[in-house]
């Protein structure tokens, strides 16, 4: 047959002449979920630290400011770590100094040891620090070159001095649902580290699925186990999305009373010591889900999506947030 034949039929996906409706539609809540959830934005630290492209101080400051403009009130600003090992976090002191203080907005920084704390204490605008320990012995030795017990001893000194200086201290537990070296991590190992961080004065304990392997039942079981030893309201969920389970895991633990969620704008991030681990759950996706549940976050979703698009342009690649991509298409 030669030539072509074009039937007089409408295209399968004819463009809609009407503007798309606003989403999500009418919120519908679920039992057990708090009417207000606090979001901790970790993109400028946990997100950018695993990017191949180093983002300038000016661009990092602009990202943090845009996230605050969108309504986020706790935004990790960086980390006082060795620039040899994590070059993306170099000049965190300059980032802090360039930020305009805002009432009600906290900009914590990660501090791994006493040397990091000393550097942080010399920085301007410091109000909060975060410390971290792993629930996996192998991960601890590969990540920070010391045992879990040694890391907790070091962190106790850091937390003690930081609190004496009037700083709020937040604690992270890594590898709570799996380790890239050991596989499954016993819940008892997570509880031991969480209890130690709580005992040294951490105001909140963030449970991190560092390599994103957990599923909802596992996430709920872990939260229930840790909540038997620590106040449930002091727990935060920090889920990476390697296996696409992060939102499902979050919903499951929110139904069990967790009120604080860590997330990363546009889904930035990963783990520099866990090959193949993808980014944190995207803040845009979390906000969209929470709005659909009638949960107050105080975040302007469109402004948040614009912040994600901007950092994506800086990095020169599309980023994983499903909501960010959908909103970009709607505005195009």
Characterise the protein shown here.
The chain is of the alpha/beta class and 332 residues long. It has one domain (38-331): Aldolase class I (TIM Barrel, Alpha-Beta Barrel), CATH 3.20.20.70. Helices cover 38% and strands 11% of the residues. It is built from twelve helices and eight strands. The protein has helices at residues 43-47, 57-69, 92-98, 114-121, 137-144, 148-164, 187-199, 216-227, 246-254, 283-292, 301-315, 322-331; strands at residues 38-41, 78-79, 109-110, 128-134, 168-174, 204-209, 235-239, 260-263. An eight-stranded parallel beta sheet has the order 1-8-7-6-5-4-3-2. It is globular, with a radius of gyration of 21 Å. The protein starts with 37 loop residues before the first strand and ends with a helix. 48% of the residues are buried. The model is unreliable at 1-17 (pLDDT under 50).
CATH architecture: Alpha-Beta Barrel
User: How much strand?
Assistant: 5-15%
For the largest sheet, list the strands in their spatial order.
Answer: 1-8-7-6-5-4-3-2
Share of residues in helices: 25-40%
The secondary-structure element order is EHHEHEHEHHEHEHEHEHHH
- What is the CATH superfamily classification? Aldolase class I
Instruction: Could you tell me the CATH topology label.
Output: TIM Barrel
Overall form: globular
What is the count of helical runs? 12
Integer count of domains: 1
Terminus-to-terminus distance = 40 Å
| Low-confidence segments | 1-17
Mean pLDDT: 91
Indicate the structural class: alpha/beta
Q: What's the CATH C level?
A: Alpha Beta
Radius of gyration: 21 Å
Q: Report the sheet with the most strands, covering strand number, pairing sense and barrel closure.
A: 8 strands, parallel
